Amino acid sequence: MGQLYQTQRAMRHMRKAAMQRGVIAILDVGTSKIACLVLRFDGDAPALDGVGSMAGQSNFRIIGAATTRSRGVSFGEVAAMAETERAIRTAVQAAQKMAGVRVDHVIATLSGARPRSYGLDGEVEVEGGQVTGSDIGRVLAACEMPDYGDGREVLHAQPVNFALDHRSGLADPRGQIGQRLTTDMHLLTVDATAIENLLYCIKRCDLEVAGLASSAYVSGVSSLVEDEQELGAACIDMGGGSTGISVFIRKHMIYADSVRMGGDHVTSDISMGLQVPMATAERIKTFYGGVVATGMDDREMIEIGGDTGDWEHDRRTVSRAELIGIMRPRVEEILEEVRQRLDAAGFEHLPSQQIVLTGGGSQIPGLDGLATRILGQQVRLGRPLRVQGLPQAATGPAFAGSVGLCLFAAHPQDEWWDFEVPAERHSARSFKRAFKWFKDNW
């Protein structure tokens, strides 16, 4: 735990330094595309402290943007290092060229990697009657760490609620008077190898990593409107290789997960069903795809096309109803999986249960209706917030993660490595904790 805590702290310092220099890049390494956006910050950005999702709003604009077809990434994880490295270099160089500046620091997002969510809580007596930063460090240290297993790393550790004596729901208790401080913390762990591979790959591109975020989290930040983040909502980010799920309430993420299926699986079903190459299947899906068949679709014929040289084979047509018949079962399967994860997370207990679909895979016509039927809630299609300087081509749902990462770069939420957490915490040995509790209370 100690090592990652230090790595995350180092990244936070690097991010601050990069922002003072005024330029930072964000890198969305997905299964179907790699996007790089270069952000420029205004010199008069306000101080970036305070707990909360949009604390310390800072002004930035996008001055460079590029995307390239992803290579070597499957299920949202790096599978072929050299290919991914080449694709990242291509995207970063193109974005730098457009921006007219060189970028050394990037903040990256990670999808897939089998995320797991934990809710923790801790409590301490306030030293001196008024809550200080060190009290917050101590209360975060008092959270009982779960045994999350070998080969896992903590990606996010966010205090989502503070309570002082009997007042709960405090975003930032610093400076307030009280005796007993308690906190709830959301911890997200992922496969360590997935993080290590991504970090190593970015380092090989001569770039410094100044931050890492879960793509399910940043998609929610950019696609859920303020009321939804406040009252309770889930963001379903349908990517190429995986579908991210994040649940927000009181402007904090309280749960995240991912389903190892996405739009590419629909494409590969079409490719196998119609016996066409993946590129042709992708084109057919994009132009003619859908999940709800009407009487018209039996009569609408789609030319498959092809260049095998076999005239009969290349002149085939298929009705749109047949295409929908191939696509629908896979889309239903993805949504059923999502529903199981939301049920397991206790989503139905939230005061509001809005569901927002985003990501490139959410653009299939009729998807919102099918999702409403399977997920049984109000479902809407989400597009990311408008960000200054964002090219028109990057405003669609496929860029929810990229835009969310810009917002995360500009104003990250407090995580426990932003506080001086007492050092003996990291060993997590119960004897030490008991001793510390004794020292704190007597």
Automatic annotation (TrEMBL):
Top-rank taxon, per record: Bacteria
Location in the cell: Cell membrane
Membrane topology: Peripheral membrane protein
This protein's UniProt keywords: Cell cycle, Cell division, Cell membrane, Membrane
Transmembrane segments: none
SUBUNIT field: Self-interacts. Interacts with FtsZ.
Its biological purpose: Cell division protein that is involved in the assembly of the Z ring. May serve as a membrane anchor for the Z ring.
Name of the protein: Cell division protein FtsA
